[in-house]
Amino acid sequence: MTSFLKNANGRLKAGLVITLFFLFLGFVVYYIPHANPFSYNTYPRRLAPSFGHFFGTTSMGQDVFWLLIEAIHNSLVIGFIVALIGTVVGVFVGLLAGFSGGLLDRILMVITDTFVVIPSLPILILMTSLMRGSATVILMALVLAIFSWAWPSRQIRSLALSLKERDFVYTAWFSGEGTVQVIITEILPYALTWSLSNFMNATLSAIASESALAVLGLSPANLISLGNMIQWARERNAIFTNQWNWIGPPIVATIVLFVGLFLLITGYNDYLSMKRGR
Question: Is the pTM of this model over 0.90?
């Protein structure tokens, strides 16, 4: 850890601090007992920020602070689930296609290219409309994950094509190991570093996609997320009624979270480049 902190660049450190702060809010503060932030008229309406209500209350009697904590938690959960599915499926399909070759490679790449070229927004709009506003966090994440694995699969296949000609791979094959075993034991360790970078990038993309759908009014109405918080405040004319304590926190939180993840991704990639250059 000491060596990492010494060699880490400024962007990586800043991104790590920001990301850890949001993880603390979303997975530690979130579990402090509090009233259901989604319930209406739990508190007096339009209260100004105070010690009891850090960001005041909405025009529907909701505590903005706890609404924000719930939104950060759900947005991060969606991002992590989408990133995990997209990375795991993408890496496995890409490695399998690259190492198998032949007919299996062509079939997998046709499927992958189909998901790459299909415009995801119309499909996501259709699927969220079919949910009729009653989707859970898990279901929303699964919908977004449908389009999250194709690009990673394409990229990792290129890695597989370059590694399959190495001597240690031939040695593993001659020793009797099957394709799947070779992929898991010999090649996957080389892909883990890339997978971590892709996981962080996929998390950012998933949160951005859900937020975009929410601001367009297409995210499930019962899902408390950063995008939906902004959408609800916009629907209730928070800007025109000067309720900046309501619409401001989710906008600022979204921007800071995106900046933190971006700094983490770019800083980590530079850190890896520096290590390889040694």
Answer: no
